[in-house]
Design brief:
By secondary structure, the chain is mainly β. The chain has a single domain (about 1-90), classed as Lipocalin (Beta Barrel), CATH 2.40.128.180. The chain contains no helices and eight strands. It has strands at about 1-5, 15-20, 25-30, 35-40, 45-55, 60-70, 75-80, 85-90. The strands form two sheets. Strands 1-2-3-4 form a four-stranded antiparallel sheet, with no helix packed on it. It has a four-stranded antiparallel sheet with strand order 5-6-7-8, with no helix packed on it. Strand 7 and strand 8 (about 85-90) form a beta hairpin.
Length: about 90
């Protein structure tokens, strides 16, 4: 599952979320720079929360909540500054 979102008004930043459930690789990047990297082969948690701060002068808090479905797939909920921004299912 891969999605991108643009964060900020005066300072624009691109946050990219890339997760491969089969390989267990997770990468969250800000402006093409990896911020969070994770690899899990077994025992993927049902619920994970990733929080990052984006920006220099204009800071924005981005929180991505990853919820694993029963068999296969995920539901990702994205908050920017504690406001629901996007829900991505796959």
């Amino acid at each position: 599952m891969k999605f991108t979102l643009e964060v900020g008004e005066a300072e624009k930043h691109v946050v990219e979320f890339n997760f491969n459930q089969l390989a267990g690789n997770l990468v969250i990047s800000v402006d093409n720079q990896p911020v969070i990297k994770s690899t899990r082969v077994f025992n993927e948690p049902l619920h994970e929360v990733f929080t990052i701060e984006v920006g220099g002068k204009q800071k924005s808090a981005v929180r991505i909540e990853k919820n694993r479905k029963q068999l296969f797939g995920h539901r990702n909920v994205v908050y920017v500054d504690n406001r629901l921004t996007r829900v991505v299912e796959g």
